[in-house]
Amino acid sequence: MCDNHKNKREGRSIEDQQAHENDHLKWRRRDFLQTAGLFTAGMAATLNGVPVYAMGNVFQMAPLASLETDRVLVLIQLRGGNDGLNMVIDRFNPEYYKIRPTIAVTESNLWALDEKNGMPNRMIDLQPLWEEDKMKVIHNVGYPHPNYSHFRSSDIWASASDTDEYLNTGWIGRYIDYDMPAFLDAQPTVPPAMQIGVQTDLVFQGAEANLALAISSPQEFYKLAVSGQLYSLENLGMTPKDIELFYVRQVANSAFRYSQSISDAYNKGRNEVNYPTSNLAQQLAIVSRLIKGRLGTKVYMVYIDGFDTHAEQNNRHPNLLNNMASAVRAFYDDLARQDMDGKVLGMTFSEFGRTIYENGSTGTDHGTSAPMLLFSKGLGKDVVGNAPDLINTDQYGDPVFSTDFRDVYGTVLGSWFGMPKEVTDFIIGKEPMIIPGLVPEKKPPVGSEEFGALLGHRISPSKADTVEIRYAVNQGGPMIMELLDKTGQVIRTFWKDAVDKGSHTLEVDLKQYAIKPGQYSYRMKVGGKIYQRTFEF
Protein backbone atom coordinates (compact mmCIF):
# COMPACT_ATOMS: atom_id res chain seq x y z
CA MET A 1 0.00 0.00 0.00
CA CYS A 2 1.31 3.43 -0.95
CA ASP A 3 2.24 5.65 2.06
CA ASN A 4 -0.08 8.30 0.72
CA HIS A 5 -2.96 5.94 1.25
CA LYS A 6 -2.41 6.14 5.00
CA ASN A 7 -2.79 9.91 5.22
CA LYS A 8 -5.94 11.22 6.84
CA ARG A 9 -7.83 14.45 6.60
CA GLU A 10 -9.90 15.70 9.51
CA GLY A 11 -13.48 14.52 9.55
CA ARG A 12 -13.25 12.08 6.66
CA SER A 13 -13.33 8.89 8.74
CA ILE A 14 -15.24 7.68 11.78
CA GLU A 15 -11.92 7.48 13.64
CA ASP A 16 -11.90 11.29 13.59
CA GLN A 17 -14.93 11.02 15.81
CA GLN A 18 -15.51 14.61 16.87
CA ALA A 19 -15.03 16.23 13.46
CA HIS A 20 -17.05 13.49 11.78
CA GLU A 21 -19.91 13.80 14.29
CA ASN A 22 -19.91 17.60 13.97
CA ASP A 23 -20.39 17.29 10.23
CA HIS A 24 -23.26 14.85 10.63
CA LEU A 25 -24.85 17.10 13.24
CA LYS A 26 -24.75 19.99 10.77
CA TRP A 27 -26.16 17.70 8.08
CA ARG A 28 -29.04 16.60 10.30
CA ARG A 29 -29.62 20.17 11.49
CA ARG A 30 -30.06 21.40 7.93
CA ASP A 31 -32.44 18.53 7.17
CA PHE A 32 -34.44 19.62 10.21
CA LEU A 33 -34.48 23.24 9.06
CA GLN A 34 -35.61 22.15 5.62
CA THR A 35 -38.28 19.97 7.15
CA ALA A 36 -39.45 22.97 9.14
CA GLY A 37 -39.67 24.93 5.89
CA LEU A 38 -36.98 27.44 6.86
CA PHE A 39 -35.02 26.74 3.70
CA THR A 40 -38.01 27.35 1.42
CA ALA A 41 -39.04 30.67 0.01
CA GLY A 42 -42.68 30.28 0.94
CA MET A 43 -44.85 29.16 3.81
CA ALA A 44 -44.54 25.91 5.69
CA ALA A 45 -46.90 24.02 7.94
CA THR A 46 -46.96 20.68 9.69
CA LEU A 47 -50.12 18.63 9.84
CA ASN A 48 -50.19 15.42 11.85
CA GLY A 49 -46.41 15.53 11.88
CA VAL A 50 -46.16 15.70 8.07
CA PRO A 51 -44.23 18.68 6.65
CA VAL A 52 -46.04 20.75 4.02
CA TYR A 53 -44.15 23.04 1.65
CA ALA A 54 -45.44 25.80 -0.59
CA MET A 55 -44.08 28.47 -2.86
CA GLY A 56 -44.45 32.09 -1.80
CA ASN A 57 -45.78 34.93 -3.98
CA VAL A 58 -47.48 32.54 -6.39
CA PHE A 59 -49.44 34.21 -9.15
CA GLN A 60 -50.92 31.48 -11.36
CA MET A 61 -50.08 31.66 -15.01
CA ALA A 62 -49.86 29.44 -18.07
CA PRO A 63 -47.79 26.24 -17.78
CA LEU A 64 -44.44 25.39 -19.21
CA ALA A 65 -44.00 24.03 -22.70
CA SER A 66 -45.22 20.52 -23.38
CA LEU A 67 -42.78 17.66 -23.60
CA GLU A 68 -43.18 17.51 -27.37
CA THR A 69 -41.12 20.69 -27.65
CA ASP A 70 -38.93 20.49 -24.57
CA ARG A 71 -36.52 18.28 -22.70
CA VAL A 72 -36.47 17.08 -19.12
CA LEU A 73 -33.57 16.55 -16.71
CA VAL A 74 -33.87 14.06 -13.84
CA LEU A 75 -31.20 14.41 -11.16
CA ILE A 76 -30.58 11.21 -9.19
CA GLN A 77 -28.80 12.02 -5.95
CA LEU A 78 -26.77 9.27 -4.27
CA ARG A 79 -26.71 10.71 -0.76
CA GLY A 80 -23.83 10.05 1.59
CA GLY A 81 -20.87 9.81 -0.77
CA ASN A 82 -20.94 7.01 -3.33
CA ASP A 83 -18.01 4.59 -3.66
CA GLY A 84 -17.36 5.03 -7.36
CA LEU A 85 -14.52 2.51 -7.53
CA ASN A 86 -16.97 -0.26 -6.70
CA MET A 87 -19.63 1.09 -9.07
CA VAL A 88 -17.43 1.36 -12.18
CA ILE A 89 -14.59 -1.12 -11.79
CA ASP A 90 -11.19 -0.63 -13.37
CA ARG A 91 -10.83 -4.23 -14.52
CA PHE A 92 -7.48 -6.00 -14.20
CA ASN A 93 -5.92 -3.15 -12.19
CA PRO A 94 -3.70 -4.89 -9.61
CA GLU A 95 -3.51 -1.78 -7.39
CA TYR A 96 -7.31 -1.81 -6.99
CA TYR A 97 -7.24 -5.34 -5.61
CA LYS A 98 -4.13 -4.64 -3.51
CA ILE A 99 -5.60 -1.70 -1.60
CA ARG A 100 -9.06 -3.30 -1.35
CA PRO A 101 -8.33 -6.90 -0.33
CA THR A 102 -11.79 -7.44 1.17
CA ILE A 103 -14.28 -5.18 -0.62
CA ALA A 104 -12.99 -5.14 -4.23
CA VAL A 105 -15.45 -6.43 -6.86
CA THR A 106 -13.85 -9.43 -8.49
CA GLU A 107 -13.93 -10.18 -12.20
CA SER A 108 -16.37 -13.04 -11.64
CA ASN A 109 -18.80 -10.67 -9.92
CA LEU A 110 -19.06 -8.02 -12.61
CA TRP A 111 -20.38 -7.53 -16.11
CA ALA A 112 -18.26 -5.80 -18.73
CA LEU A 113 -18.90 -2.37 -20.13
CA ASP A 114 -15.84 -2.84 -22.32
CA GLU A 115 -12.45 -4.50 -22.03
CA LYS A 116 -11.30 -2.02 -19.37
CA ASN A 117 -14.41 -1.20 -17.35
CA GLY A 118 -17.14 -3.15 -15.64
CA MET A 119 -20.05 -2.88 -13.24
CA PRO A 120 -21.07 -5.17 -10.36
CA ASN A 121 -23.50 -7.94 -11.24
CA ARG A 122 -25.92 -6.32 -8.80
CA MET A 123 -26.25 -3.57 -11.44
CA ILE A 124 -27.05 -5.99 -14.26
CA ASP A 125 -30.39 -4.23 -14.80
CA LEU A 126 -28.45 -1.45 -16.52
CA GLN A 127 -26.91 -3.77 -19.10
CA PRO A 128 -29.84 -3.48 -21.56
CA LEU A 129 -29.64 0.33 -21.39
CA TRP A 130 -25.91 0.09 -22.13
CA GLU A 131 -26.43 -2.28 -25.03
CA GLU A 132 -29.23 -0.11 -26.45
CA ASP A 133 -26.99 3.01 -26.53
CA LYS A 134 -28.87 4.67 -23.66
CA MET A 135 -26.09 5.05 -21.09
CA LYS A 136 -22.78 6.78 -20.58
CA VAL A 137 -20.22 6.76 -17.78
CA ILE A 138 -18.10 9.78 -16.90
CA HIS A 139 -15.00 8.68 -14.97
CA ASN A 140 -13.34 10.48 -12.07
CA VAL A 141 -15.58 13.55 -11.66
CA GLY A 142 -14.71 16.03 -8.90
CA TYR A 143 -13.42 19.55 -8.28
CA PRO A 144 -10.22 21.29 -7.09
CA HIS A 145 -9.36 21.40 -3.38
CA PRO A 146 -12.15 19.00 -2.38
CA ASN A 147 -14.07 19.30 0.86
CA TYR A 148 -14.79 16.15 2.89
CA SER A 149 -17.87 17.45 4.73
CA HIS A 150 -21.27 16.10 3.64
CA PHE A 151 -22.76 19.49 4.41
CA ARG A 152 -20.27 21.68 2.57
CA SER A 153 -19.56 19.39 -0.37
CA SER A 154 -23.28 19.01 -1.06
CA ASP A 155 -23.55 22.79 -1.22
CA ILE A 156 -20.60 22.97 -3.60
CA TRP A 157 -22.26 20.50 -5.97
CA ALA A 158 -25.62 22.29 -5.65
CA SER A 159 -24.28 25.81 -6.19
CA ALA A 160 -21.48 24.90 -8.65
CA SER A 161 -19.11 26.99 -6.54
CA ASP A 162 -15.42 26.77 -5.80
CA THR A 163 -14.41 25.24 -2.46
CA ASP A 164 -13.78 28.65 -0.88
CA GLU A 165 -16.75 30.33 -2.55
CA TYR A 166 -20.09 30.46 -0.75
CA LEU A 167 -23.10 31.00 -3.02
CA ASN A 168 -26.71 31.22 -1.92
CA THR A 169 -28.15 30.19 -5.29
CA GLY A 170 -28.09 26.85 -7.09
CA TRP A 171 -27.10 26.09 -10.66
CA ILE A 172 -30.62 24.97 -11.60
CA GLY A 173 -32.09 27.96 -9.76
CA ARG A 174 -29.92 30.31 -11.83
CA TYR A 175 -30.89 28.44 -15.01
CA ILE A 176 -34.61 28.88 -14.27
CA ASP A 177 -34.04 32.52 -13.32
CA TYR A 178 -32.64 33.08 -16.80
CA ASP A 179 -35.14 30.87 -18.60
CA MET A 180 -38.14 32.40 -16.85
CA PRO A 181 -37.37 36.11 -16.31
CA ALA A 182 -41.00 36.91 -15.38
CA PHE A 183 -41.27 34.10 -12.85
CA LEU A 184 -42.23 36.28 -9.88
CA ASP A 185 -44.65 38.41 -11.92
CA ALA A 186 -46.24 35.67 -14.01
CA GLN A 187 -45.56 32.28 -12.49
CA PRO A 188 -46.56 29.08 -14.28
CA THR A 189 -49.27 26.75 -13.01
CA VAL A 190 -46.73 23.93 -12.87
CA PRO A 191 -43.47 23.94 -10.90
CA PRO A 192 -40.39 24.56 -13.04
CA ALA A 193 -38.60 22.04 -10.81
CA MET A 194 -39.88 19.35 -8.49
CA GLN A 195 -38.59 17.02 -5.79
CA ILE A 196 -40.29 13.95 -4.46
CA GLY A 197 -38.98 12.39 -1.30
CA VAL A 198 -36.68 15.21 -0.14
CA GLN A 199 -37.03 18.82 0.96
CA THR A 200 -36.34 21.75 -1.34
CA ASP A 201 -32.63 21.86 -2.06
CA LEU A 202 -30.09 24.63 -2.62
CA VAL A 203 -29.71 23.41 -6.21
CA PHE A 204 -33.11 24.99 -7.01
CA GLN A 205 -32.58 28.26 -5.16
CA GLY A 206 -32.92 31.28 -7.43
CA ALA A 207 -32.08 34.90 -6.69
CA GLU A 208 -35.51 35.62 -5.19
CA ALA A 209 -37.10 32.25 -4.39
CA ASN A 210 -36.58 28.52 -4.27
CA LEU A 211 -38.04 27.43 -7.58
CA ALA A 212 -38.87 23.79 -6.78
CA LEU A 213 -41.93 22.21 -5.25
CA ALA A 214 -41.05 19.53 -2.70
CA ILE A 215 -43.40 16.73 -1.70
CA SER A 216 -42.18 14.96 1.43
CA SER A 217 -42.75 11.37 0.26
CA PRO A 218 -44.33 9.30 -2.53
CA GLN A 219 -47.23 8.56 -0.18
CA GLU A 220 -47.97 12.25 0.37
CA PHE A 221 -47.67 12.88 -3.35
CA TYR A 222 -50.34 10.29 -4.11
CA LYS A 223 -52.77 12.16 -1.87
CA LEU A 224 -52.11 15.38 -3.74
CA ALA A 225 -52.23 13.83 -7.20
CA VAL A 226 -55.39 11.80 -6.75
CA SER A 227 -57.53 14.34 -4.89
CA GLY A 228 -55.88 17.66 -5.71
CA GLN A 229 -55.33 18.23 -2.00
CA LEU A 230 -53.25 16.70 0.74
CA TYR A 231 -55.80 16.81 3.52
CA SER A 232 -59.49 15.99 3.55
CA LEU A 233 -61.93 18.69 4.65
CA GLU A 234 -64.74 16.20 5.18
CA ASN A 235 -66.04 14.64 8.39
CA LEU A 236 -65.08 17.63 10.53
CA GLY A 237 -67.56 18.93 13.06
CA MET A 238 -68.21 22.36 14.54
CA THR A 239 -66.14 21.98 17.68
CA PRO A 240 -63.41 24.60 18.17
CA LYS A 241 -60.81 21.90 17.53
CA ASP A 242 -62.44 20.80 14.26
CA ILE A 243 -62.96 24.37 13.11
CA GLU A 244 -59.31 25.12 13.71
CA LEU A 245 -58.27 21.90 11.96
CA PHE A 246 -60.51 22.76 9.00
CA TYR A 247 -58.83 26.17 8.69
CA VAL A 248 -55.29 24.79 8.90
CA ARG A 249 -56.04 22.06 6.36
CA GLN A 250 -57.69 24.56 4.02
CA VAL A 251 -54.65 26.85 4.18
CA ALA A 252 -52.30 23.95 3.56
CA ASN A 253 -54.31 22.67 0.61
CA SER A 254 -54.60 26.11 -0.98
CA ALA A 255 -50.86 26.56 -0.62
CA PHE A 256 -50.38 23.87 -3.25
CA ARG A 257 -51.18 26.17 -6.11
CA TYR A 258 -49.76 23.64 -8.54
CA SER A 259 -52.14 20.92 -7.35
CA GLN A 260 -54.60 21.05 -10.25
CA SER A 261 -51.92 20.81 -12.93
CA ILE A 262 -50.18 18.01 -11.04
CA SER A 263 -53.43 16.12 -10.52
CA ASP A 264 -54.39 16.52 -14.20
CA ALA A 265 -50.99 15.26 -15.39
CA TYR A 266 -50.91 12.38 -12.93
CA ASN A 267 -54.37 11.20 -13.95
CA LYS A 268 -53.56 11.59 -17.64
CA GLY A 269 -50.28 9.69 -17.44
CA ARG A 270 -49.88 6.07 -16.45
CA ASN A 271 -47.15 3.63 -15.51
CA GLU A 272 -46.92 0.80 -18.02
CA VAL A 273 -44.29 -1.38 -16.32
CA ASN A 274 -43.97 -2.86 -12.86
CA TYR A 275 -41.63 -0.84 -10.66
CA PRO A 276 -39.59 -2.30 -7.79
CA THR A 277 -40.78 -1.52 -4.28
CA SER A 278 -37.74 0.60 -3.33
CA ASN A 279 -38.23 4.23 -2.36
CA LEU A 280 -36.19 5.45 -5.34
CA ALA A 281 -38.26 3.33 -7.74
CA GLN A 282 -41.49 4.75 -6.34
CA GLN A 283 -40.16 8.30 -6.77
CA LEU A 284 -39.22 7.59 -10.39
CA ALA A 285 -42.61 5.97 -11.03
CA ILE A 286 -44.23 9.28 -10.06
CA VAL A 287 -41.84 11.28 -12.22
CA SER A 288 -42.52 9.03 -15.21
CA ARG A 289 -46.27 9.38 -14.80
CA LEU A 290 -46.03 13.18 -14.62
CA ILE A 291 -43.78 13.33 -17.68
CA LYS A 292 -46.10 11.05 -19.64
CA GLY A 293 -49.03 13.15 -18.47
CA ARG A 294 -47.33 16.24 -19.99
CA LEU A 295 -46.99 18.19 -16.76
CA GLY A 296 -44.22 20.31 -18.28
CA THR A 297 -41.80 20.46 -15.34
CA LYS A 298 -38.27 20.73 -16.70
CA VAL A 299 -36.15 19.43 -13.82
CA TYR A 300 -36.88 16.72 -11.26
CA MET A 301 -34.70 15.50 -8.42
CA VAL A 302 -35.01 12.13 -6.70
CA TYR A 303 -32.68 10.51 -4.22
CA ILE A 304 -31.46 7.31 -2.64
CA ASP A 305 -29.86 7.49 0.79
CA GLY A 306 -27.31 5.36 2.63
CA PHE A 307 -24.03 5.70 0.72
CA ASP A 308 -21.97 6.77 3.77
CA THR A 309 -20.44 3.29 4.00
CA HIS A 310 -17.79 3.59 6.72
CA ALA A 311 -18.23 -0.01 7.87
CA GLU A 312 -19.24 -3.37 6.41
CA GLN A 313 -19.59 -1.86 2.97
CA ASN A 314 -20.19 -5.18 1.25
CA ASN A 315 -23.36 -5.61 3.32
CA ARG A 316 -24.80 -2.30 2.14
CA HIS A 317 -23.31 -0.83 -1.02
CA PRO A 318 -24.22 -3.66 -3.44
CA ASN A 319 -27.87 -3.43 -2.34
CA LEU A 320 -27.90 0.33 -2.89
CA LEU A 321 -26.46 -0.07 -6.38
CA ASN A 322 -29.00 -2.78 -7.13
CA ASN A 323 -31.86 -0.52 -6.02
CA MET A 324 -30.55 2.32 -8.15
CA ALA A 325 -30.04 0.15 -11.24
CA SER A 326 -33.41 -1.59 -11.06
CA ALA A 327 -35.24 1.71 -10.49
CA VAL A 328 -33.55 3.45 -13.43
CA ARG A 329 -34.18 0.46 -15.70
CA ALA A 330 -37.91 0.45 -14.86
CA PHE A 331 -38.08 4.22 -15.36
CA TYR A 332 -36.62 4.16 -18.87
CA ASP A 333 -38.58 1.07 -19.87
CA ASP A 334 -41.72 2.92 -18.79
CA LEU A 335 -40.83 6.07 -20.72
CA ALA A 336 -40.01 3.98 -23.79
CA ARG A 337 -43.58 2.69 -23.95
CA GLN A 338 -44.59 6.13 -25.23
CA ASP A 339 -41.29 6.90 -26.98
CA MET A 340 -40.33 9.50 -24.36
CA ASP A 341 -37.06 7.94 -23.23
CA GLY A 342 -35.15 10.19 -25.64
CA LYS A 343 -36.63 13.35 -24.15
CA VAL A 344 -35.48 12.63 -20.59
CA LEU A 345 -31.86 12.82 -19.44
CA GLY A 346 -31.09 11.04 -16.17
CA MET A 347 -27.92 12.04 -14.30
CA THR A 348 -26.50 10.56 -11.09
CA PHE A 349 -24.35 12.54 -8.68
CA SER A 350 -23.08 12.34 -5.10
CA GLU A 351 -21.44 14.88 -2.81
CA PHE A 352 -18.11 13.04 -3.00
CA GLY A 353 -16.58 9.62 -3.58
CA ARG A 354 -14.90 7.34 -1.07
CA THR A 355 -11.30 6.65 -0.14
CA ILE A 356 -9.62 4.34 -2.62
CA TYR A 357 -8.38 2.06 0.17
CA GLU A 358 -10.62 0.13 2.54
CA ASN A 359 -10.49 0.93 6.24
CA GLY A 360 -10.23 -1.36 9.25
CA SER A 361 -14.02 -1.77 9.38
CA THR A 362 -14.20 -3.18 5.84
CA GLY A 363 -15.67 0.10 4.66
CA THR A 364 -14.46 3.31 3.07
CA ASP A 365 -14.22 6.89 4.31
CA HIS A 366 -14.94 10.25 2.70
CA GLY A 367 -13.01 10.67 -0.53
CA THR A 368 -13.07 12.91 -3.57
CA SER A 369 -13.89 12.03 -7.17
CA ALA A 370 -16.40 9.45 -8.39
CA PRO A 371 -18.10 8.56 -11.68
CA MET A 372 -21.39 10.01 -12.91
CA LEU A 373 -23.90 8.04 -14.98
CA LEU A 374 -26.07 9.50 -17.75
CA PHE A 375 -29.15 7.87 -19.29
CA SER A 376 -31.29 8.68 -22.34
CA LYS A 377 -32.30 7.16 -25.65
CA GLY A 378 -29.86 8.21 -28.37
CA LEU A 379 -27.14 9.00 -25.85
CA GLY A 380 -24.87 6.23 -27.12
CA LYS A 381 -22.73 4.02 -24.91
CA ASP A 382 -19.34 5.29 -23.89
CA VAL A 383 -16.98 5.60 -20.96
CA VAL A 384 -15.77 9.20 -20.93
CA GLY A 385 -12.32 9.78 -19.45
CA ASN A 386 -9.98 7.41 -17.68
CA ALA A 387 -10.28 5.53 -14.42
CA PRO A 388 -8.68 7.20 -11.38
CA ASP A 389 -4.92 6.81 -10.95
CA LEU A 390 -4.62 4.79 -7.74
CA ILE A 391 -0.84 5.21 -7.39
CA ASN A 392 -0.08 8.88 -8.14
CA THR A 393 -2.46 10.32 -5.56
CA ASP A 394 -2.59 13.58 -3.64
CA GLN A 395 -1.24 14.10 -0.11
CA TYR A 396 -4.33 12.50 1.41
CA GLY A 397 -4.14 9.38 -0.72
CA ASP A 398 -6.96 10.44 -3.06
CA PRO A 399 -6.74 10.35 -6.86
CA VAL A 400 -6.66 13.66 -8.69
CA PHE A 401 -9.97 14.28 -10.48
CA SER A 402 -9.94 14.47 -14.27
CA THR A 403 -13.38 15.97 -15.05
CA ASP A 404 -14.76 19.00 -13.23
CA PHE A 405 -18.42 18.43 -12.36
CA ARG A 406 -19.17 21.96 -13.57
CA ASP A 407 -18.05 20.95 -17.05
CA VAL A 408 -20.75 18.27 -16.93
CA TYR A 409 -23.30 20.85 -15.76
CA GLY A 410 -22.23 23.28 -18.48
CA THR A 411 -22.55 20.61 -21.14
CA VAL A 412 -26.03 19.70 -19.95
CA LEU A 413 -27.10 23.36 -20.00
CA GLY A 414 -25.51 24.12 -23.36
CA SER A 415 -26.22 20.91 -25.26
CA TRP A 416 -29.25 19.34 -23.59
CA PHE A 417 -31.17 22.55 -22.82
CA GLY A 418 -29.69 24.63 -25.65
CA MET A 419 -28.51 27.57 -23.54
CA PRO A 420 -26.22 30.09 -25.32
CA LYS A 421 -22.56 29.93 -24.31
CA GLU A 422 -22.55 33.27 -22.50
CA VAL A 423 -25.60 32.24 -20.50
CA THR A 424 -24.04 28.91 -19.58
CA ASP A 425 -20.89 30.71 -18.45
CA PHE A 426 -22.97 33.00 -16.25
CA ILE A 427 -24.98 30.16 -14.69
CA ILE A 428 -21.91 28.06 -13.92
CA GLY A 429 -19.88 31.08 -12.80
CA LYS A 430 -16.93 30.16 -14.97
CA GLU A 431 -16.33 29.11 -18.53
CA PRO A 432 -16.98 25.36 -18.45
CA MET A 433 -15.29 23.01 -20.85
CA ILE A 434 -18.05 21.59 -23.01
CA ILE A 435 -17.60 17.82 -23.33
CA PRO A 436 -18.06 17.00 -27.04
CA GLY A 437 -20.74 14.45 -27.83
CA LEU A 438 -21.69 13.89 -24.20
CA VAL A 439 -25.41 14.46 -24.78
CA PRO A 440 -27.45 15.07 -27.96
CA GLU A 441 -27.51 18.76 -28.83
CA LYS A 442 -30.87 20.48 -28.72
CA LYS A 443 -31.85 21.99 -32.03
CA PRO A 444 -33.19 25.54 -31.75
CA PRO A 445 -37.00 25.60 -31.92
CA VAL A 446 -38.74 27.26 -34.82
CA GLY A 447 -39.53 30.68 -33.39
CA SER A 448 -39.43 31.32 -29.68
CA GLU A 449 -43.10 31.10 -28.77
CA GLU A 450 -43.11 28.11 -26.42
CA PHE A 451 -45.76 29.39 -24.01
CA GLY A 452 -47.50 32.16 -25.88
CA ALA A 453 -47.13 34.46 -28.84
CA LEU A 454 -47.51 38.10 -29.72
CA LEU A 455 -49.19 37.87 -33.11
CA GLY A 456 -49.01 41.55 -34.02
CA HIS A 457 -50.90 44.84 -33.71
CA ARG A 458 -52.82 47.29 -35.83
CA ILE A 459 -54.91 50.46 -35.60
CA SER A 460 -58.53 49.43 -35.21
CA PRO A 461 -60.49 49.85 -38.46
CA SER A 462 -63.69 50.63 -36.57
CA LYS A 463 -62.64 52.47 -33.39
CA ALA A 464 -60.73 55.72 -33.46
CA ASP A 465 -57.54 56.04 -31.41
CA THR A 466 -57.61 52.32 -30.59
CA VAL A 467 -54.80 49.82 -31.11
CA GLU A 468 -55.60 46.11 -31.38
CA ILE A 469 -52.92 43.79 -29.97
CA ARG A 470 -53.31 40.16 -30.99
CA TYR A 471 -51.79 37.43 -28.84
CA ALA A 472 -52.15 33.74 -28.02
CA VAL A 473 -51.55 31.57 -24.96
CA ASN A 474 -51.30 27.79 -24.87
CA GLN A 475 -53.42 27.33 -21.74
CA GLY A 476 -55.75 29.52 -19.74
CA GLY A 477 -54.44 31.53 -16.83
CA PRO A 478 -53.54 35.09 -15.80
CA MET A 479 -51.51 37.24 -18.18
CA ILE A 480 -49.86 40.67 -17.94
CA MET A 481 -49.63 43.12 -20.86
CA GLU A 482 -47.53 46.27 -20.31
CA LEU A 483 -46.49 49.34 -22.29
CA LEU A 484 -42.86 50.49 -22.15
CA ASP A 485 -41.29 53.74 -23.33
CA LYS A 486 -38.09 53.99 -25.37
CA THR A 487 -35.95 53.68 -22.23
CA GLY A 488 -37.60 50.40 -21.28
CA GLN A 489 -39.61 51.81 -18.38
CA VAL A 490 -43.12 50.45 -17.79
CA ILE A 491 -45.54 53.37 -18.14
CA ARG A 492 -48.90 51.56 -18.41
CA THR A 493 -50.35 48.16 -17.59
CA PHE A 494 -53.09 47.22 -20.06
CA TRP A 495 -54.02 43.86 -18.63
CA LYS A 496 -53.36 41.86 -15.46
CA ASP A 497 -55.96 39.14 -15.29
CA ALA A 498 -56.83 35.65 -16.44
CA VAL A 499 -57.34 34.76 -20.09
CA ASP A 500 -58.54 31.57 -21.75
CA LYS A 501 -56.42 29.30 -23.91
CA GLY A 502 -56.29 30.38 -27.55
CA SER A 503 -55.94 33.56 -29.59
CA HIS A 504 -57.17 36.93 -28.35
CA THR A 505 -57.35 40.58 -29.28
CA LEU A 506 -56.73 43.26 -26.66
CA GLU A 507 -58.16 46.67 -27.55
CA VAL A 508 -56.19 49.61 -26.14
CA ASP A 509 -57.82 53.06 -26.16
CA LEU A 510 -54.85 55.41 -26.57
CA LYS A 511 -56.76 58.44 -25.31
CA GLN A 512 -57.99 56.62 -22.24
CA TYR A 513 -54.40 55.79 -21.30
CA ALA A 514 -53.17 59.29 -22.32
CA ILE A 515 -50.58 57.84 -24.67
CA LYS A 516 -48.92 60.46 -26.83
CA PRO A 517 -47.55 59.75 -30.31
CA GLY A 518 -44.11 58.17 -30.30
CA GLN A 519 -42.20 54.89 -30.22
CA TYR A 520 -43.12 52.26 -27.62
CA SER A 521 -42.91 48.56 -26.85
CA TYR A 522 -45.63 46.31 -25.55
CA ARG A 523 -44.68 43.35 -23.43
CA MET A 524 -46.58 40.20 -22.52
CA LYS A 525 -45.67 38.14 -19.45
CA VAL A 526 -47.05 34.64 -19.33
CA GLY A 527 -45.84 31.34 -17.88
CA GLY A 528 -42.76 33.02 -16.48
CA LYS A 529 -41.73 34.11 -19.99
CA ILE A 530 -41.57 37.56 -21.57
CA TYR A 531 -42.55 38.43 -25.15
CA GLN A 532 -42.05 41.93 -26.50
CA ARG A 533 -42.63 43.92 -29.70
CA THR A 534 -42.22 47.56 -30.66
CA PHE A 535 -44.75 49.86 -32.28
CA GLU A 536 -45.01 53.52 -33.25
CA PHE A 537 -47.98 55.77 -33.86
Can you put this structure into words, describing what you see?
This protein has helices at residues 17-35, 94-99, 127-131, 150-159, 171-179, 218-227, 240-255, 259-268, 279-292, 317-336, 405-416, 421-428, and strands at residues 44-47, 50-53, 72-78, 89-90, 110-112, 117-120, 134-142, 193-196, 212-215, 299-304, 344-349, 370-375, 380-384, 403-404, 452-459, 466-473, 477-484, 490-499, 502-509, 519-526, 529-536. With 537 residues, it is α/β, with parallel strands linked by helices. It folds into two domains: 3-428, Alkaline Phosphatase, subunit A, CATH 3.40.720; 452-536, Immunoglobulin-like, CATH 2.60.40.1930. The strands form five sheets. Strands 3, 7, 8, 9, 10, 11, 12, 13 and 14 form a nine-stranded mixed beta sheet that branches. The model is unreliable at 31-69 and 445-449 (pLDDT under 50).
Brief descriptors of the model:
537 residues, Alkaline Phosphatase, subunit A, Immunoglobulin-like, 26% helix, four-stranded antiparallel β-sheet, 2 domains, alpha/beta
The Rg value, from CA coordinates, equals 26 Å
Per CATH, the architecture of the largest domain is 3-Layer(aba) Sandwich
Please, how many helices? Answer: 12
- What share of the residues does DSSP label as strand, in percent? 15-25%
Using the alpha-carbon principal axes, give the shape: elongated
Largest sheet: 9 strands, mixed
> What is the straight-line distance between the termini?
81 Å
Overall pLDDT level: 83
CATH class of the largest domain: Alpha Beta
Number of domain modules: 2
Helix content: 25-40%
How many DSSP E strands? 21
Low-confidence stretches: 31-69, 445-449
The CATH topology name of the largest domain reads Alkaline Phosphatase, subunit A
Question: What is the structural class?
Answer: alpha/beta
